[in-house]
Amino acid sequence: MSETFSALDETPAEEPVPMETIPRSPYELVVIAAQEARRLNERWRRSTNDHTEKVTKTAVDRVLAGQVHFLHTENP
Q1: Which of 6, 26, 36, 69 has the highest CB neighbour number within 10 Å of its CB?
Q2: What is the 3-state secondary structure (H, E, C) of 17-75?
Q3: Which of 36, 38, 28, 35 lies closest to 73 in space, CA to CA?
Q4: CB within 8 Å of 32: residues ≥ 6 apart
Q5: pLDDT by residue (tens digit) across 38-62?
Q6: Are 4 and 16 in contact (CB under 8 A)?
Q7: Distances (CA, A) of 50 to 33, 41, 56
Q8: Which of residues 50 and 7 earns the better pLDDT score?
Q9: Spatial separation of the C-alpha atoms in residues 5 and 66, rounded to whole Å
Q10: All residues at 6 or more sequence positions from 13 whose CB lies less than 8 Å from its CB, including other chains
Q11: For residue 18, what are the CA distances in angstroms to 23, 50, 59, 71, 74?
Q12: Please, how many CA atoms are within 13 Å of residue 37, restricted to the half-sphere of its CB?
């Protein structure tokens, strides 16, 4: 097993956490799509191109197509 190191020092870094692309429930799909919609909306506001698609539809389509990667975190 090869060690991975962080960029700031020479100590071994933690193992990478696998990213997921398929939501576990409809609720999770909505939450992830909402976060993606916010991200897309900010990016689209900064661009000069006019976008004819609705940002929410684009976000849901991207999540369902597996183009949005996310991590599951445990609640304390």
Answers
A1: 36
A2: CCCECCCCCHHHHHHHHHHHHHHHHHHHHHCCCCCCCCHHHHHHHHHHCCCCCECCCCC
A3: 28
A4: 23, 63, 68, 70
A5: 999 999 888 867 777 899 999 999 9
A6: yes
A7: 21, 12, 16
A8: 50
A9: 29
A10: 4, 5, 6
A11: 14, 35, 21, 8, 15
A12: 15
- Identify which of 14, 5, 17 has the alpha carbon closest to the alpha carbon of residue 69: 17
Number of Cβ within a 10 Å radius of residue 14: 7
Q: What is the reported pTM?
A: 0.65
